Amino acid sequence: MRCPVGFVCLVLCVLCASSALADVCTVPSAPHPTIQAAVDDAACTEIVLVAQVIAESVTVFRSLVMRGGSSATTTISGQVTVTGDSTEFNLQDLRLDGSGCAPVALDVTDGAQVTSQQDVVVVNTTEGPCPIFANGFESGNTLGWSNALP
What pLDDT score does 52 carry? Predict the structure, then answer.
């Protein structure tokens, strides 16, 4: 039984369209609540970060594009580590801020390559001790804390 050429073209078009839709992944979103979740998803070849501060450290181990709205509106607060000799990582329109806990905002190792097309700011400063709790709770009165096991 022969398969009509039109049917084969239709199947190929559907497959190409579905893979093209899966290439761009938005963070945060239901399927990708974190940047690392999008990096770990092999279908994401471009990661788009919404305009906000995202407190996360990320390890990029494969080639992809990561972009935000602008360096004034989209910030990754933490460390981005790019590793792997065949990894090509392209940054666009975002700010990497290593202030506070991350000693280096952008760490490139093992022969990886990082390129930037536009509007990328990298800040590497240490501003005092690294807080244990995000809300700074440890700087308050600790007399009420208990050393008893729960």
Answer: 97
